[in-house]
Amino acid sequence: MHSHSLVVDLYELTMADAYRREGMAYRPATFSLFARAIPPGRSYLVAAGLDDALSWLEELSFGAEELAVIERLGLFDHEFLSWLGELRFTGHVRAVPEGTIVFPHEPILEVDAAIAEAQLAESFLLNQITLQTTLATKAARCRHAAAGRAVADFALRSAHGVDAGMKLARVGRLVGLSGTSNVAGSDRYGFPAVGTMAHAFVQAHHQETDAFRAFASAFGTTTVLLVDTYDSYRGIDRAIEVAGECRRNGTEISGIRLDSGDLAALARYARQRLDESGFPALRVFVSGGLDEREIDRLVGEEAAPIDGFGVGSALGVSVDAPTLDTVYKLVSYDGRPVRKTSTGKETWPGAKQVWRAHDWSSDTLALAVEPPPGPAWRPLLTEVMHDGRRTPEGQVSLAEAHGRFEHEWSTLPPRLKHLSAPTSHPLRVSSRICQLAEEFDAQQRSEEAP
Amino acid sequence: MHSHSLVVDLYELTMADAYRREGMAYRPATFSLFARAIPPGRSYLVAAGLDDALSWLEELSFGAEELAVIERLGLFDHEFLSWLGELRFTGHVRAVPEGTIVFPHEPILEVDAAIAEAQLAESFLLNQITLQTTLATKAARCRHAAAGRAVADFALRSAHGVDAGMKLARVGRLVGLSGTSNVAGSDRYGFPAVGTMAHAFVQAHHQETDAFRAFASAFGTTTVLLVDTYDSYRGIDRAIEVAGECRRNGTEISGIRLDSGDLAALARYARQRLDESGFPALRVFVSGGLDEREIDRLVGEEAAPIDGFGVGSALGVSVDAPTLDTVYKLVSYDGRPVRKTSTGKETWPGAKQVWRAHDWSSDTLALAVEPPPGPAWRPLLTEVMHDGRRTPEGQVSLAEAHGRFEHEWSTLPPRLKHLSAPTSHPLRVSSRICQLAEEFDAQQRSEEAP
Predict the structure, then answer these.
(1) Range list of β-strands (E), B18-66
(2) Tens digit of pLDDT for each residue in A174-195?
């Protein structure tokens, strides 16, 4: 596989060449990456993906193999190829830390760099920030719904490819899920690997009880028995039988998993049978088509005695909101604030800062050069890369990012956490930004006059 | 990054260990991978992802690095690790060729192998077949809607990660899109790289016309000018101005792109202005929030004079149906057909074949050992891997797979291609399968009797 430097849209390369030909390539520019809107049903986004974005920028380079690919496109001359071979990312990045709660029109990151360098980053940065922010937001909603119970990522099989499966483990760790079924993801992101057994394991044995015994004998205290392959009520009884056998051999198995049927009713039956059989510590896990609303219903309305949830495809593809209207827009070029005024897709000009009121009453979108709106406001964007190298703020471990998310989450007002009644968070746009936009539009109009 | 052999759910490893401990690991098994249901609004699925599935099986092995990761999980003893270090996939795979139209409950592939080998493949096979089948189906719908006009994949930025972005290019090639914006995907899958320019390029110039001139001067006949950065009507006029300048210098630019606003009205205006200005061959491309229904509306109801569509996030994540209820189920173990009977998730027992009536009137799900239902039926599954090695049928190039899709598509009845009125395709289950299921259930009941 080629270096990720080729994971770009063709037009990033053609524009870079055109900038170069015009002598514009090294003029300073600022690009702003933000979501234009929040998907229906959501109140907040959990910013994620910065670490991969910074790694791509650090590693940006086109070696002989990449240049050969670009040459084969038949669009570029040798001058461009040799120029591209020398290109590295030498600019700065300001960003909100991963795990920060953000709202529409608030930059997740801004790139201050030579326009050719910043332009090339568009495709990859959007790809990773969009993916990881989408998944982190969904995972945070699932965790919130579980109200303290464990939520495990079982979604590798339904994630969109290997990279998404890995990043799912990453954002699960970021927002405090309990573990992932993905072995590679667990290892890479220092996140517990979790799992039970598949129906196939039960089916491959002549009797369900044989399967339970074999698994418990191999895995002892970590054993979770899947009880719904044939009849869940019988499965529960058989699990209790095997748990009793294990106890007589000195082992307490961990739990059972329900994967189909009326999960609340089955969990109540299981809990009652387990308790009356002397297994109050044996846990009840459930899975099967769960999303945050179903978890919320099971935990809330149903008050089902469930200890943990395994979440699959609804989490894996963020099924109700699989995409996010993120953009990477030029907001300043060669010292001049710019904007686009396309119908319905207008952007605010200038390099920015987001200020957040300490009491979460509102945010303010201001120019990066503006002072804070007042003493009770904190800035969200900090410099994470300078001259192409990560600053200390750009070298945050995933464990630290998780800690930051926990802190952020603990202060987030309940109204913004609500799962089914989204509220919008007020964003004030500074008068200086509005003024710049008006000046820009007036300038455009004057240039368009005959 | 580790080998993809670690891209497995933890339970695949624990089950493999349990099979090994019980002396079951090398008993023959058949697993069947199929979609349990078709997403709302769909009539068919385009099977895809087989090539990557077979590559994973060919490359399955756990070297020192992978074994160290597994050892660190703290669940496995050295006997298992050394056994796993020797494990390779030595089984057979029967599958439908990529690009085949399939329906729910029809196996996309079946793995006949030692149960431990076949079990390990579950996570990765589901991940890739689900992703690629989801995206190929969406891409086929977009192409169908465009009714012969070009459809380009502009979705790298919104795809769920790098792997999904690459596979999007792959399935675009499979189902006959016109090209991809993804440079790495274009190179890897021999698919034209396409692209225009971003709004940033226009914004970085003092005047829109300057941006158009610069781009046309760099890229000549491949130039497509993005005209909606400020005011699309003026943008169109400026593009015509620059197209005229180019013509006077001996160059005909390729087209313009509209990315916002009322695309049908703007396309009509653009076409009329281009024609009356002497540019009848200059093409009009559109993009911006398109999906197959909007393409269909623009092409059909609006009869808009559009030459090509660039499709982004709706294609990139298959936004209306981002997931597919695919499963990988044990259907036979040690010569014995098996099934699961979980509520609402019952499966049919036995290794299977799908027979399709030549006139697409219906399909028949039969046991692999059954003869054809009659002379006018063709089998869909063929052996693509034998003893761990690809057969000739497993070594199909993407170009050949595309050819096969074209043939398949040309015979697919219009009722099944309809974009908004899905029809279900009749699937008959053979009496031998039904009989096996009944026998299995009777056996289960007799074993459960007190």
Answers:
(1) 28-35, 45-46
(2) 999 999 999 999 999 999 999 9
What distance separates the 2 farthest-apart alpha carbons in chain B? 94
Write out the two tokens for B414. Answer: 């219009």
**Partners of A355 in the beta sheet?**
A364, A379
Closest Cβ opposite residue B342 in set A10, A214, A229: A229
- Give the pLDDT band (50/70/90) at residue A1: very low
d(CA B418, CA B423) in angstroms, rounded, equals: 8
Give pLDDT, residue B449: 57
Q: Say which CATH superfamily domain A145-316 falls into.
A: Aldolase class I (3.20.20.70)
3-state secondary structure B406-425: HHHHHHCCHHHHCCCCCCCC
- pLDDT band of A2, cuts 50, 70, 90: very low
Domain ranges of chain A: 4-135+324-448, 145-316
- pLDDT tens string A90-142: 999 999 999 999 999 999 999 999 999 999 999 999 999 999 999 999 999 99
**CA–CA distance from B353 to each of B104, B107, B407 (Å)?**
14, 8, 21
Q: Looking at residue B448, what is its pLDDT?
A: 63
CATH topology of domain A4-135+324-448: nicotinate phosphoribosyltransferase (3.20.140)
- Strand B363-367 and strand B352-357: the pairing is antiparallel
A182/B9 Cβ within 8 A: yes
What chain A residue is nearest to B313 in terms of C-alpha separation?
A323
- CA dihedral angle for residue B298, residue B274, residue B308, residue B250, rounded to 10 degrees: 180
**How far is the C-alpha of B215 from the C-alpha of B437, rounded, in Å?**
66
- Give the C-alpha separation, A29 to B331, whole Å: 59
For the cut 60, the answer to whether the pLDDT of residue A449 exceeds it is no
Give chain A positions within 8 Å (CB) of B444.
230
Q: What pLDDT is stored for residue B83 in this prediction?
A: 98
Render pLDDT for B405-443 as a digit per residue (tens, 0 to 9).
999 999 999 999 999 889 999 999 999 999 999 998 898
Q: Are A144 and A417 in contact (CB under 8 A)?
A: yes
**Residue B288 Rama label (left phi>0; alpha psi -120 to 50; beta):** left
Question: Pairing between strand A308-311 and A283-287?
Answer: parallel
ipTM: 0.96
Contact between A344 and B260 using a beta-carbon 8 Å cutoff? yes
Classify residue A132 by its DSSP letter: H
Where do runs of H (alpha helix) occur along A63-206? Answer: 64-72, 78-86, 115-120, 122-146, 161-175, 183-189, 199-203
pTM (global) more than 0.95 = yes
> Does this chain's domain A4-135+324-448 share its CATH topology with A145-316?
no
Separation in Å, CA B386 to CA A309, B57, B115, B118, B123: 39, 11, 16, 13, 21
Paired with A429 in beta bridges are A365
CATH architecture of B137-316: Alpha-Beta Barrel (3.20)
Q: How many residues does chain B have?
A: 450
Check if the beta carbon of residue A224 is closer than 8 Å to that of residue A255.
Answer: yes
CATH-assigned architecture of domain B4-135+322-448: Alpha-Beta Barrel (3.20)
**Tens of pLDDT along A194-234?**
999 999 999 999 999 999 999 999 999 999 999 999 999 99
Nearest CA in chain B to A212: B18
Q: Is B8 on the interface with A (CB under 8 A)?
A: yes
Closest CA to A77 of A86, A67, A87: A67
Which parts of chain B sit beneath pLDDT 70? 1-3, 448-450
pLDDT for the residue B1: 39
Structure tokens at A209: 């009880």
Q: Is the dihedral of CA B18, B24, B27, B29 positive or negative?
A: negative
What's the pLDDT at B358? 94
Q: Is residue B128 within 8 angstroms of chain A, CB to CB?
A: yes
